[in-house]
Specification:
One of its GO terms (molecular function) is demethylmenaquinone methyltransferase activity. This protein is α/β, with parallel strands linked by helices. It has one domain: 3-Layer(aba) Sandwich (Rossmann fold), CATH 3.40.50.150. It is built from nine helices and eight strands. It is globular. The model has no long low-confidence stretch (mean pLDDT 91).
Amino acid sequence: MENPIAFQGSEKARRIQAMFAGIAPTYDQLNHWLSLNIDKRWRRAAVREVQDVLTRPGARALDVCCGTADLALELGRLAPTVGVDFCQPMLLRGMEKVRQSGRPVHLLAGDALALPFADASFDVATVAFGIRNVVDLDGALAELYRVLKPGGKVAILEFSHPVVPGLKPLFGFYFTQILPRIGNAVSRSGYAYSYLPASVQHFPDQPTLAARMEQAGFQQVKWRNLSGGIAALHTGVRPAVTNPVSADPVSTGVDADR
């Protein structure tokens, strides 16, 4: 199967959907192994960023591009959570994990560009390692903004661009030379793990993503580099008042994996 990065629009979305359907059986095991379980720490960092909102009485969370529900299950420790994904085989894997957990998490099929919820439905919205796969980034950000309540918080966890000197070439070598070979050996879908580094390379860097979030209407936009910028965690707030003054997006300057 040809790498989805070479396509645009609905055809790219269709190929990404098929790609994830193909790797669903080995997705969790391979991802945790390839990242040395660091991805779990990154997700916990995302939950901590929204914990202040999730612990409010009656709070509800939405996890978009939820995949096999790893982040949705973490959010479900604190508040009822809905997970949405457009890949049914990934959702089926997640549903089994939800059943075993007993947490208040509900998964359903849905498109990040047309979320099946009314305006202002959730107190928290998250995306982990999924927004770079959406064919219209600005459209996805607009949908996240739409479904958040005023005063609600968004957290976007995504692979990014390393900022530590010397890390970028090492990361690039691992991503482009080692990871696809291991992915092919385990999942027989090497093209999926070739798509990963290509999609990260084409994805906006930390300041650019923050600016796009502000363009979508989010305020108090910040980001934290994780593991030297291999991943980044962006947060923002849907303003609670009309036409507030916006601050420039900033980096906290913190590299936090805890």
